[in-house]
């Protein structure tokens, strides 16, 4: 692992060095120096598909491992802190979780309104720092029972400890039951059967679940399609490392209702789908999904969001709560 990491780092340094050297050239007119630099750049670019895919997979794995270590660190620190809510607010990507959950719930409310206030929710890939579940439970789904699934037992243990700590810190607020509404289980998603998955109204699939390739993610989506209840919603988070196409979700037996690609600092695309009653569509006649904007880019809403009559109006910006500092909102909701 260390040798591979060093190889990747060396390649990045090589590319960065070539970029810096070429940018500093006084002229791009042909000269021995210009020819030599661009020859080096071409040699780097000529890496074969196998080398490219190997390095890409290694970079994705390294990023995933680093993210896991970051979440483990903050989960442990929050659970041990005297003022855990203050410490939770220091997590560098908390705002991204808040924005993403706002987007996901907004998509449910608009395109699957009967499922925006679910009774039972599964979050597959909850990890050691289950901020997605916490934000959804506290801010958007106040009556839902949440089951977090992760194949790592240590991650599930950390998640349980964190939720207990945060709930205790809330101290008797109306939503102190958030902790009571959340449980965490250790298992691989592909080991879950219909008896496990059919009880959920909504299933969230974390971006990191299923490995580094689109093909691996497709296997997970297909498994969910075989075992989720008809009419249940699937919310698929898709990251830069492994993009999930709507066709993959449709082939798994879902009607794709809407999708959103980030047009801000977010890196997660979201696909909202509903389990079809009749299984996969084999003729390819899948209705085109709605394409929606990111949470705080609502002025760029699609045409269906404009008022009837069509002149000039655009959809209103979201409530100010999506702009609030997340930890202040947490206190206001009295976890």
UniProtKB/TrEMBL annotation:
- Listed GO biological process terms: nicotianamine biosynthetic process
Which EC numbers characterise this protein's activity in its record? 2.5.1.43
Return the broad EC class.
transferase
Record keywords, A-Z? S-adenosyl-L-methionine, Transferase
Sorted alphabetically, which Pfam families does this protein's record hold?
Answer: NAS (PF03059)
Q: Name one GO molecular function term.
A: nicotianamine synthase activity
Q: Which reaction does it catalyse?
A: 3 S-adenosyl-L-methionine = nicotianamine + 3 S-methyl-5'-thioadenosine + 3 H(+)
Extract the InterPro entries matched here: Nicotian_synth (IPR004298), SAM-dependent_MTases_sf (IPR029063)
Chain positions covered by the region annotation Disordered = 278-335
Q: Which domain of life is it from?
A: Eukaryota
Record family assignment? Belongs to the nicotianamine synthase (NAS)-like family.
Q: What does the protein in this record do?
A: Synthesizes nicotianamine, a polyamine which serves as a sensor for the physiological iron status within the plant, and/or might be involved in the transport of iron. Synthesizes nicotianamine, a polyamine that is the first intermediate in the synthesis of the phytosiderophores of the mugineic acid type found in gramineae which serve as a sensor for the physiological iron status within the plant, and/or might be involved in the transport of iron.
Would you tell me the protein name for this molecule?
Answer: Nicotianamine synthase
Please tell me the species this chain comes from: Oryza meyeriana var. granulata
């Amino acid at each position: 692992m260390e040798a591979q990491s060093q190889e990747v780092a060396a390649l990045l340094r090589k590319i960065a060095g070539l970029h810096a050297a070429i940018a500093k050239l006084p002229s791009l007119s042909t000269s021995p120096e210009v020819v030599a630099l661009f020859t080096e750049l071409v040699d780097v670019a000529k890496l074969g598909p196998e080398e490219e895919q190997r390095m890409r997979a290694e970079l994705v794995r390294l990023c995933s491992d680093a993210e896991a270590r970051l979440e483990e660190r903050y989960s442990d620190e929050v659970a041990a802190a005297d003022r855990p809510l203050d410490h939770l607010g220091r997590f560098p990507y908390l705002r991204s979780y808040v924005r993403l959950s706002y987007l996901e719930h907004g998509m449910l409310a608009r395109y699957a309104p009967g499922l925006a206030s679910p009774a039972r929710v599964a979050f597959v890939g909850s990890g050691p720092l289950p901020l997605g579940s916490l934000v959804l439970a506290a801010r958007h789904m106040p009556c839902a029972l949440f089951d977090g699934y992760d194949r790592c037992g240590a991650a599930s243990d950390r998640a349980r400890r964190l939720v207990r700590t945060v709930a205790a810190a809330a101290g008797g607020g109306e939503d102190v039951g958030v902790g009571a509404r959340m449980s965490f289980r250790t298992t691989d998603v592909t080991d879950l059967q219909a008896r496990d998955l059919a009880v959920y109204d909504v299933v969230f699939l974390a971006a990191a679940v299923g490995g580094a390739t689109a093909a691996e993610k497709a296997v997970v989506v297909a498994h969910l399609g075989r075992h989720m209840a008809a009419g249940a919603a699937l919310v698929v988070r898709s990251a830069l490392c492994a993009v999930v196409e709507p066709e993959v979700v449709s082939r798994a037996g879902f009607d794709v209702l809407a999708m959103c690609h980030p047009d801000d600092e977010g890196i997660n695309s979201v696909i909202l789908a509903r389990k079809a009653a009749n299984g996969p569509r084999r003729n390819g006649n899948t209705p085109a999904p709605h394409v929606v904007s990111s949470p705080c880019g609502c002025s760029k809403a699609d045409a269906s969001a404009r008022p009837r009559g069509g002149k000039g109006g655009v959809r209103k910006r979201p409530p100010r709560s999506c702009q609030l500092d997340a930890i202040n909102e947490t206190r206001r909701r009295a976890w």
